[in-house]
Amino acid sequence: MAAFDFAPLLNSGLPAPAARWTGLAKYSFVGGNNDPGAVPVDALRAAADAVLAREGRALATYGLAHGPQGYRPLRDFLASKLSRDAGMSARADDIMILSGSLQGLDLVNQALLTRGDTVLVEQDNYQGTLTRLARLGVKTIGIPLDGDGMRTDALATVLADLKDRGIRPKYIYTIPTVQNPTGTIMPENRRAELLWLSRAYGVPVFEDDCYADLIWEGRRPRAIHGMSDHGGVIHLGSFSKSVAPALRVGFLVAPWEIMSVLLALKTDAGSGALEQMVLAEYCKPHFATHVPQLVRGLRAKLGTLIEALDAEFGTAAEFVPPKGGIFLWVKLPDQVDAMKLSQAALKRGVSINPGPEWSTDAAHSRSRLRLCFASPSHQEIRDGIAVLAEVCRHEFGVPLRSANVEHSSAGE
Amino acid sequence: MAAFDFAPLLNSGLPAPAARWTGLAKYSFVGGNNDPGAVPVDALRAAADAVLAREGRALATYGLAHGPQGYRPLRDFLASKLSRDAGMSARADDIMILSGSLQGLDLVNQALLTRGDTVLVEQDNYQGTLTRLARLGVKTIGIPLDGDGMRTDALATVLADLKDRGIRPKYIYTIPTVQNPTGTIMPENRRAELLWLSRAYGVPVFEDDCYADLIWEGRRPRAIHGMSDHGGVIHLGSFSKSVAPALRVGFLVAPWEIMSVLLALKTDAGSGALEQMVLAEYCKPHFATHVPQLVRGLRAKLGTLIEALDAEFGTAAEFVPPKGGIFLWVKLPDQVDAMKLSQAALKRGVSINPGPEWSTDAAHSRSRLRLCFASPSHQEIRDGIAVLAEVCRHEFGVPLRSANVEHSSAGE
């Protein structure tokens, strides 16, 4: 009997079907994966045991009867953390827990965006944001970055130009605190300029602060949300980078006017309660000491990656060391096509994120790539970068052999 | 300074903004909440501890590196459970784990439905399905039910009529095993008829089997998916009813042709891993003994609810006892407007689901209501139904006082 044919029933404009999962590459520098050794397993076990013993029966009720904004103790923890670290004055009632911060992107987009709308984003950007905007048929204007993040002078020019043309963008999306992929941190004076532009043009700021806990120097600037006095900022955060990405728990902070709309759109019957319970129980006593320890380990891995790139690529790999986070944004010589490099490298067991998938500017990002250094071990970083250099040399003639030779001599 | 005004930026056609959460009613008969006493807290604690100790470090990687279909041991458990209980021959590769079965509704709808499309559903139905279809602008045709679930004779008539008019519905959505809200179970011969119609008209079956574990008699009919030989069935299930609703873990079984499309649409970076891990660890040794125990408790609560309705409403409350599940679907006299009753009852601390929110037929459901008996205690069921009867009498003159007097005498 012929199998049922779904094809004629499918909507048009769907993304390409998924391929079968074949596992991670041997040397995986992709995604936002973190250091397995840094997962606080024993403390999470203790937290799970304590909170289940105390409140496990509440799992019989959707959302633990804490309402659609999520588990109250987790929101209480966040309110105090965001006040202490980010200068935000959010109360628990201003916070909603999400099934990962990606759900926040989807909810905000559902509330604000229609095909043909315009949004402003940093030119080099998080792929998950760019693909969402593309699928929605939204016009995405990339604002160039410098060492201090999104350039507000360029933003001002674009906003003025759009206003002249009668276009009011729906939001300015920014990752101001450890930008993805560039690793920059926007200083407070530039945050103030951005807020001034937001108010002047009536365009809200969508602040994605997912990496804000992972800063080498420890102290972070105030969140844009915390500096705002006009309420036009939607703030997004996550535990994926600070505790563990496979836990799907993010959060959003926003005025009730927009929060109430997002809550009406969140029709998932609540985010996973056990993960919220365990996180709250874990974070209250441990978060403040866990994060600096995690960050030290990440910084050491960045050191290893930079050494490996210097050794294997020499001057062929250009980069500015990030001020925190888990990514290095690397520029290779112009002849390197990063899309082709990523495919060739994958065949040799090395996965990388090619620049064009992380940018609004195809030419600018053509020879760039994003390397996650948190997930592979120090040895995997060294070995993986050595293979990547070999593949790059074979495909594009760079780095020159000499870089490698220097490395060999130095190692003897 | 004036607060930022989001209103001009919002999309049109959004649902009404959420109201502030004010907690559950004192006597809550709404939603799919379950019995707090039946949550297997100690076994979940042991499962959490064991699986975190063994695999906790994997939380550093999105999806535990098990791929977008979810935690492999949970899919292995499901493959064996579905084979044993539901006669399905799904392998782990045919199963995707969801963040609750609602995500399955959203993914399937995203893949198949466009404004103006037609779908067929059971006339009395799950509210979450009906509101989703309404928001998508889909034409939803309700097929009448009898004691054996969706009437396939009526389905055949509707399909033939639609075909005459050149309309091919996108799917037939059914809850065949403990239908929500009527509590019926479709026998296998009718399932075979439904499959015959599905093939004859080229319309896939979307089988929502969320309540299928909760059956008084234990044995369930084979799933429609298990009886199909043409692959035109998408099967949906959940742990919300069998273990705990606040855990957001559901699953979907479908041929790769449609599964691969749904996976491409699932852009949430994986469903919560800790909940999947704990469930797999718990279910493998405990599921088969936990469920009959849970079911015995639910059936006892149904007994209490039926006694309370008989005592307080007498003949004014008509119903057919369900064959399983957590709901009773009650018909009150025609003068009762269930929407008004639900509002008046809420003021007295009793929450109920009014029929019109659970049906495609406003007239048929006007005086009906759905009562969840799993969540309140036996005493809360008795007290809540007494208050509901009082409110109903005050608002609509039924039940007559005599029913209550009989109850009082009987109780002395």
UniProtKB/TrEMBL annotation, chains A, B:
Quaternary structure and interacting proteins, as annotated: Homodimer.
Question: What protein name applies here?
Answer: Putative 2-aminoadipate transaminase
The coenzyme or cofactor needed here is: pyridoxal 5'-phosphate
The family database entries (InterPro entries) matched by this protein are listed as: Aminotransferase_I/II_large, Class-I_PLP-dep_aminotransf, PyrdxlP-dep_Trfase, PyrdxlP-dep_Trfase_major, PyrdxlP-dep_Trfase_small
The family note in this entry says: Belongs to the class-I pyridoxal-phosphate-dependent aminotransferase family.
Residues annotated as domain Aminotransferase class I/classII large: 37-386
Q: Which GO terms describe its molecular function?
A: pyridoxal phosphate binding; transaminase activity
Q: Which CDD domains match?
A: AAT_like
User: Which GO terms of type biological process are on file?
Assistant: alpha-amino acid metabolic process
Residues spanning the signal sequence:
none
Classification via PANTHER family: AMINOTRANSFERASE, KYNURENINE_ALPHA-AMINOADIPATE AMINOTRANSFERASE, MITOCHONDRIAL
Alphabetical UniProt keywords: Aminotransferase, Pyridoxal phosphate, Transferase
Q: Which Pfam families match?
A: Aminotran_1_2
